[in-house]
Amino acid sequence: MTATDSAELPERRAERLKERIYVTFTSLAVVIAMSSRAEDLTPGAAAVTLTITVVGTLLAVFVADLVAHIVVHATMPAREELGHMVRVSSSSLGVLVLPLIFIGLAGLGRWHLEQAMRASSIALAATLIVIGYLAARRLRLPLRSRLVILFAEFGLGVLVVLLELLAHTYGESH
Fold first, then answer.
1. Deepest in the core among 63, 66, 94, 148, taking most CB within 10 A?
2. Mean pLDDT for all residues in the chain
3. Which residues cross the membrane (predicted)?
């Protein structure tokens, strides 16, 4: 590994983490919104809606990265950089695993869709909490400061979900 590789490693990890957090928030908002009308949905419709949302979000981020690279560098990304962009985007597909398993259980009649949505919400929220904890744990700050940061992340996360739900609720009522 060269000096350049080691300097890029944290930046590349940060890119994957940032995208994973963003997609997890989006997935959580979609799952919560679908939960409010789970009685009107089939498990298949819920799975398709969530999958389309995540794939669409990842494609949007990929296109944004590609366009930003072109604007900043006035050239198409090299094969390695393009591969990195694809890997970053595709690595966030893992956000779908547990929710789709839970929705699949509803499709098999093992759970009600409402239970699957609740379990999905808990899994996605837990993912965000674990990511926040792992990030705060690495900081070289006193425990009290790390706890403040962790609770601030949690509060901002709640605010993001509430704003996304407000947008969904507003859209349904107008």
1. 66
2. 86
3. 21-38, 44-72, 93-113, 119-136, 148-170
